[in-house]
């Protein structure tokens, strides 16, 4: 079944890559550059090739105001891996970046299947993988972005927690914390599970305490390193993010965007779709809570939702931030498991088709940051 799960993911996303390649050729663009050098990918490739230190200034930033964009906003694990792989893979940094993202996406699919299989059974595990591969923003899983890597680390860390493997979960949490700001969610899952074991189950295992201390170390280390480099050890990283136009506003910005859509304001299609997807994510989160989902998955998903909903700036990127939040799909997979196999396949195929079209729109038509 594990091989079948990987096959399902490869089939859904492989078809998506083919559609994107054909669309890129039709638009007169190089498919490899569309996949490997779009938006944030350019920053990761630059860090991999030249290290940190690049700053870009905008009189009218993408977030709506003037901004000073520093590459310190990007966490180091993915660029480091790109540089290492490029030393042995011919073709330079771009093929290495794509290879890492694709391998990570496959590893994430396997981890997601194992979690779905453990909680709901093998058929639900397959459906969970298919649904995740067919999400509207799943084109990102085949780009040179960090979401595939974070999803892989998160899935296997959560699987380790479900098995009680504290050392592996904590180690993966450290790596997740070096991948993206939202890697903090993996550390939160480890800490929540460990504290539950200590306070409720009265665990005395030394590995539990070690997990609590170790899990946030990667995330905290990078924030501290940026702070030291910028002269403000505790607040430097957050200053970098504010200059990008990103800050935590408790969802005020998201509510303003939703109001524009609901009142018929003139907004891009991506903005409308983002509002719909965020509303769907909120509903699925309620269903996940009602389904008695294991604590580590709830903590992980909850922190991802909190960061995504509460953060301001780059509103249309929020569904991408939620790509690693695959536990949200567990209630849907559970319902589809009870459907006839043909119906489940048709629903997944239909969602995949919509995802392919929306992926073309995001990368070749839309003028909003992905």
From TrEMBL:
Membrane spanning stretches: 93-113, 125-146, 166-195, 207-228, 269-290, 297-315, 321-337, 344-364
Gene Ontology terms: cellular component: membrane
Keywords: Endoplasmic reticulum, Glycosyltransferase, GPI-anchor biosynthesis, Membrane, Transferase, Transmembrane, Transmembrane helix
Subcellular location: Endoplasmic reticulum membrane
Domain of life: Bacteria
Record's signal peptide: none
Membrane topology category: Multi-pass membrane protein
GO BP annotation list: GPI anchor biosynthetic process
Listed GO MF terms: alpha-1,6-mannosyltransferase activity; GPI mannosyltransferase activity
Metabolic or biological pathway, per its Swiss-Prot or TrEMBL entry: Glycolipid biosynthesis; glycosylphosphatidylinositol-anchor biosynthesis
The name this protein goes by in its record: Glycosyltransferase RgtA/B/C/D-like domain-containing protein
Organism, as annotated: Streptomyces subrutilus
